[in-house]
């Protein structure tokens, strides 16, 4: 089939989180399976650091937005099997970061991404008018299913193409004040509760959910959770209304980039047969680099992620403090960037316990790989987690994941209990209550096995390392969704 991916992130061009990983690897897997895949992204400043040649094209796009005509050039690059186009308008996209700075979201985000959606429609018309499926990702592209359903600008391809919208995180909705509505180019008659309006505001994601031919999200459990008031972020009613068109497909990982046997970032590469020596060497180098006590027999607990409320940092900080104050025999290694309050609290704790707690505030892909390789356990007590990728990387690198029993974490980690240890299916540990006490108790249970039941621990590690978390299975499911969507009548 002929599929166009519309996204704001895709490795190696732009990434702030899991969306970048998914859109960097899923299109390539689909192309390997015989689909024709084209990707359209904004020309963010970061695309210049991708190491991939980007060429100008002679195609220009023109959008009437905010009372004026705004132009963009189309740039082009090539990934294995996939054509990538960038919508280049420097005033919108050539900025230090993708969505905002220290003062919060960029104030013109509505205009930036409404423009992206509208320019993308024209780009499709120019470069792949025989498209079957336009696959939109997250709120930034949420207006596109509406444009397609309304035959906006009467593009010919809209008559036969169908839309799929994937929700990578329902909490980010692209909600803007009502006066931004004209930027969308949709008439005021679309600003209704069964359209773009959400409690008096304009909502990109809601628009997409209502108008997409098919909706997917990134794990089966999250697909169920978002239809409940607890995890629905105000859109659970809309999602229940569309529940027949909603599917959960678990993310895969790029197993070329995340392969402990070939990873160029590691001090020592290793597989499931020599994980003990591999892990020891990688742990040792982290201990030296970060000035931790040079003792490889201490279990290391790794954490990598956005320093955002979602990831449970309030609870992590509490658990860390208890462990450090009581001098329990573990070390901590944290890599993250995000909210200032977590930067401050983590930095204060790290300076109090320099031999037990190593902290790197910032974004570093190589260090993320090294932490997965050097740590024995990986802690992820997320408040909610659409899919989560770090637990999948952890499994692959033999860092046993301890996860909150929510969303994709439930779908990808098998809790170690009497039954699953006996029938040899356990790959990690579930925390079933969102409290620091429950997290600490599960961490204690894991450490007890790590210290006293070496054979059981080793089996858990090896099973995780040999679990198939690649895109193969999921790409097949996306193929089914595309086929079903293409056959829908509007
Ligand atoms: P989310 O998309 O909610 O941030 P995921 O677990 O799905 O969470 O994906 C996060 C991705 O971003 C992973 O690839 C993770 O390694 C990466 N990541 C997050 N924070 C950092 C960081 N500070 N440095 C390097 N990689 C990071």
Written description of the protein model:
The protein has 17 helices and 20 strands. It is α/β, with parallel strands linked by helices. The model has no long low-confidence stretch (mean pLDDT 97). It binds adenosine-5'-diphosphate.
For the structure shown, list the relevant keywords.
17 helices, single chain, binds adenosine-5'-diphosphate, 490 residues, alpha/beta, 20 strands, nine-stranded mixed beta sheet, six-stranded parallel beta sheet
Amino- and carboxy-terminal Cα gap:
19 Å
For the biggest sheet, the summary is: 9 strands, mixed
Structural class: alpha/beta
- Strand residue content: 15-25%
What is the residue-averaged pLDDT? 97
Low-confidence stretches: none
Number of strands: 20
Q: How many DSSP H or I helices?
A: 17
> What percentage of residues falls in helices of 4 or more residues?
25-40%
Described by the principal axes of the CA atoms, the overall outline is globular
User: Within the largest sheet, what's the order of strands?
Assistant: 3-4-5-2-1-8-9-13-14
Q: For the CA atoms, what is the radius of gyration?
A: 23 Å
Distinct compounds present: adenosine-5'-diphosphate
